Amino acid sequence: MESRKQDNYFHQLGKLRRKPLAIAGPCSAESREQVLDTARQLKELQVDIFRAGVWKPRSKPGTFEGVGLEGMAWLQEVRHEFGLPVATEVAKPQHIEFALKHHIDVLWIGARTSVNPFAVQELAEVLRGTNVPIMVKNPVNPDLALWAGAIERLWAVGLTDVAAIHRGFSSYEPSQYRNLPLWQLPVQLKAQYPNLPIIVDPSHIGGKPELIYPLSQKALDLDFDGVMIETHPNPKAALSDADQQITPAVLGEILTKLQVRSMPDQAFVSRAEELRKKIDRADREIIEALARRMRVVEEIGKDKKENNVAVLQLERWNEIFQTRPQWAAQMNLTPEFIQELYQLIHVESIRIQTEVVKKDA
Ligand code: PEP
Ligand code: MN
């Protein structure tokens, strides 16, 4: 189902820049002055696409829900005055109609919309026959199929200029992030669709200015294609997402600091091949050792059964969880890592012994 087009709109913009694609602008368009002032500064930074939300999905009613249609004219002014492509979020078919009528260059589907296949399908139907570039944020919950499904719905109506935006996943667990990055999900999406550009949105993942640079660099290290960063001339006064927006000046520093990792050369490839062989050998040894361990576990299980001894022996459990992290530390491994690994190993050992007990009970 993947669009075969290798060079879609987003790849081409990135190539022109010969740097990661940079999308920036305020969370929300608030006034004509704020929009034009931000765009003027971002143009100087050679940002590729100017973003601004005009219809804002807010958790609570009664908060600022965007300026709506009025903002379209401001975005058009940005296009004309600075020659900057402009992007906005669309959540309803009517938003798309307005956006197309006002020549908005790029659309994006937000996290609260990509979560709903009915809504995405409805948007896809309106887009049939256009070829407007469109970005799909991951759904709020960590569901890869739902994210991929939203993208496939757009491909299915003939859109080829599609990109994914990684904006993190909501969680109830306390964490330093506003939305957990769970990098394995975008990486899996990339593995599934190698031609699909992926852009990181460190503003919504981190929720705070100091996380924007490390999250962006991490994404580039994972070979993402670009960044989308919320930028406001006076972040503290922003009407939405005031805690995470940065000034154009700070954005400039971040964009200069970001390093694109280069394509590996032949010497690197052969060194990596040698090292990977060593890793393969080590992994085999680990798995052989685990198989050996589990055979002994089974033997003890039988013995426990014959002697009517309970499978779980607490002192033994405690001893394992004390000694293994200590051994790990002596071998320069992180004790927490080995602790976690042994949780899994111990659970499997208990499962094996429970099976033995059940077998001819
Ligand atoms: C936004 O980009 O301002 C936005 C509302 O993002 P998300 O859909 O990721 O919450
Ligand atoms: Mn926002």
TrEMBL record:
EC number: 5.4.99.5
Keyword Calcium: no
GO BP terms: chorismate metabolic process
Domain of life: Bacteria
Coiled coil: none
GO molecular function: chorismate mutase activity; transferase activity
Start and end residues of each Chorismate mutase domain: 266-357
Alphabetically ordered keywords of this record: Transferase
The protein's enzyme class: isomerase
Protein name, entry field: chorismate mutase
Organism: Nibribacter ruber
